[in-house]
Amino acid sequence: MAATLLIVLEVVLSVLLIVVVLLQQSKGEGLGAIGGGGQLFFGKSKAAEAFLDKATTWLAIAFLVVSILFLFV
Questions:
Q1: What gap in Å lies between CA 65 and CA 24, rounded to an integer?
Q2: Could you give the count of Cα atoms lying within 13 Å of 5 in the half-sphere of its Cβ?
Q3: Where are the domains of the chain?
């Protein structure tokens, strides 16, 4: 029962983490320089960027904690 709960929580956290990372604006050109999409999200607000940064941090910490909890199940 606990293992199933941890697996479901791990999957949900991983999907949320992927979505939050993909929503963030890139800090450099990265692969956007190849296709010319470097300034695709030009008008993003600083509040949204700060929220996404904090969400990424907390989701990554939660993912790590749940992964470590797998050791004890």
A1: 23
A2: 4
A3: 1-19+45-73
Q: Would you list the DSSP string of 9-56?
A: HHHHHHHHHHHHHHHSPPSS-TTHHHHT-TTTTTT--HHHHHHHHHHH
Q: Check residue 27 and give its pLDDT.
A: 73
C-alpha to C-alpha distance for 62 and 70, rounded to whole angstroms: 13
Backbone dihedral angles phi then psi of residue 26, each to the nearest 5 degrees: -70, 145
Is this model's pTM higher than 0.85 or not? no
Which residue ranges in the chain fall short of pLDDT 50?
A: none
Q: How much is the CA Rg of the chain, to the nearest whole Å?
A: 16
Q: Which residues contact 29 (CB under 8 A, 6 or more apart)?
A: 38
